[in-house]
Amino acid sequence: MNAPENSAGSGLPEQPDEKRFEHRGAMFDALAREVTERLAQAIDQRGEATLVVSGGSTPQPLFDLLSGADLDWSKVTVTLADERWVDKAHKDSNALMVRETLLRDRAAAARFVSLKTEDPSPEQGEPELEERLQRDLKAPLDFVLLGMGTDGHTASLFPGGDQLARALNAPGGVRCCALRAPGAPQARMTLTAPFLLKSRQIVVLCTGETKARVFSDALAPGPREDLPIRAILRQSRTPVTFYWAP
Ligand SMILES: O=C(O)[C@H](O)[C@@H](O)[C@H](O)[C@H](O)COP(=O)(O)O
Question: Glucosamine/galactosamine-6-phosphate isomerase domain: which residues (predicted)?
Fold first, then answer.
């Protein structure tokens, strides 16, 4: 089918809404429309909008579409859900990927808030970043786009992360957390789970059968530390939609 199946009930769902597609192209088109509409609505209602995006490879076709969206991008602030602690010109830098795929064409007018400082380690950079995020990002965030790894991580909330407990349970006001994990090739800076949940809408974007299985596992009861995406999926405070295509 090309039309999404929408399983949302009435009121705030305790399980994510699901939009599954037969083809990735249809999924990216639908998601680009949703992001554009939600940002336009935020600008209409509050004069500005905040978009949090993830790195990784899955969202790149979406960013290509969004970069040409007819929106007043000068009123949009874009930041990342997480960053790898590498130089801003390094091929693994999420900021570099976002600059090359999203922040061009019309979207070049958006303001970008980086999750990286010049410090040699994310631990050293954390205080400056916390201050930057407190100053430059208005909460609630309007739209948060997350990915998921096959190990159940989202943003840089990795299973086995040295600061995972802090990143999952930080008091509401704390926005970012440095983290290292065996499954993460570089040291990371991540937004905390409580801050990601301070948003009007979250989308978890995934492709492929393996991630569909991890998603089902994450909906089943179990510790968030095993599959940290549970912190996003198994809550009833913030609306979440799972977008999926093979
Ligand atoms: O910087 C990162 O690595 C991410 O933001 C991360 O959370 C990503 O979303 C998942 O690892 C999925 O990545 P893929 O889309 O490449 O599978």
Answer: 25-235
The token pair that represents 212 in the structure block: 């569909």
Contacts of 34 (CB under 8 A, 6+ apart): 203
pLDDT tens column, 4-38: 333 344 456 678 999 999 999 999 999 999 999 99
Instruction: Give the distance (Å) from ligand 1 centre to CA of residue 46.
Output: 30
Number of helices (H), then strands (E), in the chain: 8, 10
Question: Does a structural domain hold residue 53?
Answer: yes
Tokens linked to 18: 């699901």
C-beta atoms surrounding 47 within 10 Å = 9
CATH number at residue 223: 3.40.50.1360
pLDDT in tens, 135-158: 999 999 999 999 999 999 999 999
Ligand 1 neighbourhood includes 77 CB (under 6 angstroms): no
In a domain, 13, yes or no: no
Q: If you search the block for the tokens 């995972």, which residue do you land on? A: 164
Would residue 222 count as lying in a domain? Answer: yes
Q: Which domain holds residue 233?
A: 36-136+153-240
- DSSP β-ladder status, 143-146 and 111-113: unpaired
Question: pLDDT tens for residues 219-228?
Answer: 999 999 999 9
For residue 96, is it within any domain? yes
Nearest CA to ligand 1 atom 7: 155
pLDDT tens digits for range 101-114: 999 999 999 999 99
Structural domain tally of the chain? 1
Positive or negative, the Cα torsion across 128, 201, 101, 105? negative
190 lines ligand 1 (CB under 6 A): no
Positive/negative CA dihedral, 215, 79, 165, 181: positive
